[in-house]
TrEMBL record:
PANTHER family (alphabetical): OUTER MEMBRANE CATION EFFLUX PROTEIN (PTHR30203), OUTER MEMBRANE PROTEIN-RELATED (PTHR30203:SF30)
This protein's UniProt keywords: Coiled coil, Lipoprotein, Membrane, Palmitate, Transmembrane, Transmembrane beta strand
Subcellular location: Cell membrane
InterPro entries: MdtP/NodT-like, OMP_efflux
GO molecular function: efflux transmembrane transporter activity
GO cellular component annotations of the record: plasma membrane
Protein name: Efflux transporter outer membrane subunit
Coiled-coil intervals, chain numbering: 70-97, 405-468
């Protein structure tokens, strides 16, 4: 067989190996398309494009004390600052992936000493080599090197470029994750702030009732001295006053815990939260406009985050698939090499250079590559299902809060009328009791029912405000 035939045989063999290595396993690629089929509106009679989510949070929240708290939290909240560092990590990951498909160039310098056996092929040759007439190669043999070298993997299958694109998508995902955290943080602070105002008003109602009940207790004691009431009535009214006083301390503890919760979100140690206590019952809940469900795709940061995760997972599949293909690498070097520093820069005697190209293809035992490819497909499906889940969850959250706003408005109107009726009944029962025309039990029950109704009215008002905060959050407002 002549030399030309041998070269043809080797070339044919290499080509066959490369083609075989390029074959990827027949794994199921059930790529789930993004489902954007959403209902046209949240309710049958609502199809307006006006959307409250477009408002920045400083325009949505009018209370200056609340806006000051939110502004402080956006600067000092530790969890938010941790997320900002995660964004920085993702940004650096992009730079790392970008550097992988660019040529790597470096400098190399070294010095060494080598002694080989004389009765070896290399030793025998060195022993008979004359560097100058009558002067043999030195033994042991020093070695000095200075050179520049470069390596470059040619990204013929876009494996490295796709890895960089996936890193970009994950970076954008972390940015949207930060935006989603901002939305949640603002809503949590606002919820806690209005809960604090509700507790303040509940405490004021308790103190007011303590005064009323104490006056009634004095009347009962006076009636007992006049033999118009019994000791049983006195003790029942005393127990009522003590129970109401106990509620006072329970509410004060809740106020302390709520203040500390807000301070924690603001990244500071406990201190009093500045707020306007008066006028809570007269607060007008901020009106909201839900817009169209399709607007959630652009407004909700968690949906955008899931979308970027899905894009990254698709690129990961391409990267995993490219690992089945041969990789092409080029390496080069140029420099000087000599056994004596005085000869190191002699040109061309000490000059060295090299240029090498190699193809590396996986041939046998590709189990790890197949497993990586299967995992990438599975994670892509996970990301697709998660994208659908996040969209569905966003729609349900908005629909629930809109329904809650509507029902709470009706409930608040009825509870207001209930409180008004019970407040009148308290005055009537006190008047009748003074005239000995009503039993003390009627007075006690009326006072208790009136107190509970006032508490429920404040709770309903708080829920009304929180429902609007929550729908603002569910629509994707607050992060812009």
């Amino acid at each position: 067989m002549n030399r030309q035939s041998i070269y043809k045989y080797i070339g044919f063999t290499c080509l066959s190996v490369a083609v075989w290595a390029c074959k990827t396993p027949q794994l199921e690629q059930n790529t789930l398309e993004k489902s954007r089929n959403m209902p046209a509106a949240y309710t049958t009679n609502q199809a307006d494009t006006a959307n409250t989510a477009k408002l920045v949070w400083k325009d949505f929240f009018k209370d200056p004390y609340l806006t000051a708290l939110i502004d402080t939290a956006l600067k000092n909240n530790q969890e938010l600052n941790i997320t900002l560092q995660e964004i920085e990590v993702s940004r650096n990951e992009i730079r790392a992936r970008k550097g992988e498909y660019l040529p790597f160039i470096g400098l190399r310098a070294g010095a060494g000493l080598e002694k080989v056996g004389r009765y070896t092929s290399k030793g025998a040759n060195d022993a008979t080599t004359d560097i100058k007439p009558g002067k043999e190669m030195p033994e042991p043999l020093p070695d000095y090197l200075i050179s520049a070298y470069a390596t470059w993997e040619i990204d013929i299958w876009n494996k490295l470029h796709n890895a960089k694109k996936a890193a970009v998508s994950r970076y954008l995902s972390t940015v949207e994750g930060r935006n989603f955290m901002v939305t949640n943080l603002i809503a949590e602070i606002a919820d806690s702030y209005y809960e604090l105002l509700a507790l303040d008003n509940q405490l004021a109602i308790v103190n007011q009732n303590i005064g009323l009940q104490t006056n009634v207790l004095k009347i009962v004691r006076t009636q007992k001295e006049a033999a118009h009431a019994t000791e049983l009535a006195v003790k029942r009214f005393e127990a009522q006053v003590l129970a109401t006083q106990s509620m006072q301390y329970d509410i004060q503890q809740k106020i302390t815990e709520t203040e500390n919760k807000i301070n924690f979100l603001l990244g500071r140690y406990p201190q009093r939260i500045q707020r306007e206590i008066q006028g809570f019952e007269n607060l007008s809940p901020t009106p909201v406009q839900a817009g169209l469900p399709s607007q959630l795709l652009a407004n909700r940061p968690d949906i955008r985050q899931a979308e970027f995760d899905l894009a990254a997972s698709k690129l990961d599949v391409k990267v995993a698939k490219a690992r089945f293909y041969p990789s092409l690498g080029i390496s080069a070097a140029i420099g000087y090499n000599a056994f004596n520093p005085s000869y190191l820069l002699n040109t061309p005697e000490s000059l060295l250079y090299s240029l090498t190209g190699d193809i590396l293809a996986p041939l046998v035992n590709r189990t790890a590559i197949k497993a990586g490819y299967a995992n990438a497909n599975a994670k892509q499906l996970q990301a697709a299902y998660n994208y659908e889940r996040v969209i569905l969850n966003a729609y349900v959250e908005v629909a629930n809060q809109l329904s809650k706003i509507n029902n709470l408005e009706k409930s608040y109107d009825l509870k207001s009328r209930q409180v008004q009726a019970l407040s009148q009944s308290v005055n009537i029962s006190n008047t009748l009791f003074k005239a000995t025309r009503a039993d003390y039990m009627e007075v006690l029950l009326t006072q208790r029912e009136a107190l509970e109704a006032k508490f429920e009215l404040i709770e309903t008002k708080k829920q009304q405000i929180n429902a609007r905060i929550n729908v603002y959050q569910a629509l994707g407002g607050g992060w812009k």
